[in-house]
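I have been asked to look over a protein record a colleague put together. Thanks in advance; the entry in question is below.
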Amino acid sequence: MTQPFFIVVLGLALLLWSADRFVDGAASVARRSGMPPLLIGMLIVGFGTSAPEMFVSAIAAAEGNAGIALGNAYGSNITNIALILGLTALMSPIAVHSGVLRRELPVLAAITALAAWQLLDGELTRLDAIVLLAFFTALMVWSVVQGIEKRGDAFGGEMEKELDVHTIPLGKAIFHLVTGLIFLIASSRMLVWGVVKIAHGFGVSDLFIGLTIVAAGTSLPELASSLIAARRGEHDIVLGNVLGSNLFNTLAVVGIAGIIHPLFVGQEVIVRDIPVMCALTLLLFFFGYGFQGRGRINRVEGAVLLLCYGVYTAYLLKTGFVH
């Protein structure tokens, strides 16, 4: 069992390292091509921070490991809201200034409801996956239009500052982009192989591993970037990371996995994990949107989110899903 643990640790480290290089390279190339900073933040960085989930779930689906594919995506959504936003709000209460982000909150709630409805019959078919990817494409088009019309948005201003600080030469940016992509694929394959071996060795389901180890590990880019942004007072980047990542996970990550191989959905996903994800998304909607014109996730609300994550994780560990 030592070798699978080593492969998982090495694969996760390479996954996060390659995702970081991929984001840096893609953002720099996009910046030099004239793309507005707001769109770089919403599309390039949003895709990049979800790249670990996307590659891991795609490879897991191709190998018939539906539990890892779905557990990784939905577990990452739960981790993003409950753990990452909870920790970040405890460090620095998150004020929701950006009009674009505040419009995305109800969109995320609606997309989460769609995903839950699709899984009620116990499977994610290729038709379901096509619907998810169609909504993803429409959302990207909508984001581009909003980005062009709202160049003065607070999120865009914060992203412009970040891009100015981290500018790299074009040749180096392309090299980072290509090498990042190569190592993303290789490290994802390593991670999936390792966690499957561990799951079988301990007699637990692939879903359990996907919801815990894989979901927490692939969410580390969002955690790191959110904590750094919170320390700098860049609140819209914090919320943008989570909203963008959850939209990518729900639509693109699950959609791509379902296109590769239709996924059987276990009953525990329908009665436990999907309701938890929906409840947390609804909670985020109420905390972040604000119904008196001042959306804010304060420290008390951050503690509530962390408590939710702790209770959910404790339940997973207690049950263990032993075969």
In short: The mean pLDDT is 80. The chain is about 85% helix and 0% strand.
